[in-house]
Amino acid sequence: MKFDDLARLNGARQERRASATITDLASGEISLVSEETVPEGPLGAAIADAMRSGKATSVEIDNRILFINVYLPPPRIVVIGAVHISQALARLAPVAGYDLTIIDPRTAFATEERFGDVDVIAEWPEDVLRERPFDSYTAVAALTHDPKIDDFPLSQALKAGCFYVGALGSRKTHAKRADRLKDMGHSEEEIARISAPIGLDIGAANPAEIALATLADIVRSLRRRDLLTQG
Q1: pLDDT per position as a tens digit, 168-222
Q2: What is the CATH superfamily name and number for domain 76-223?
Q3: Domain extents in the chain
Q4: Strand order in the sheet with 194-195
Q5: Does pTM surpass 0.70?
């Protein structure tokens, strides 16, 4: 690999952006593609599939055998609200390979006694996100039902292009939330990205089932996400 490409790859890793190397197995030539520059056509489709799955693959294009190796940032879940659903989600997320952080300024809820060694931050999201911003490999789940706590991180998640944005609450609650997000400058198209009520519709009836439905929704969103392409 060329030195410049190696530097770009390391930079992408530090910035939590996806990249892929494409190696021509006959010539040994290696090229680097970022998620933002996936080309159109059969090669672009193969790269996009590899980036969605996270698995290396070989393809034959124009009588050339190409090996595609992907470098993806580890996906993470940021939960807004130290509630019962969060406790269940904190147990499930590591099993699926996700790092998880919980943010809740309510110190009576965000305690070590309730969450053990989970990364729990008892501060306002506005303060946390200045140092730990969202990115496209972050899933955000807002669970407090409190606009003062949920609305800001939901807005930031939409701006950052998080691969999943979900919010707890009924359709009536979400309609009011949508109005507030419009007042914050978001379009209807952006707001439509929010999964609300949160999670896949599996008829969840308790916190553990809602957590399971949410995690399944997150996994589906990661594996089926759109990738930016340019011709």
Answers
A1: 999 999 999 999 999 999 999 999 999 999 999 999 999 999 999 999 999 999 9
A2: NAD(P)-binding Rossmann-like Domain (3.40.50.720)
A3: 3-71, 76-223
A4: 119-121, 99-103, 76-80, 138-142, 164-167, 194-195
A5: yes
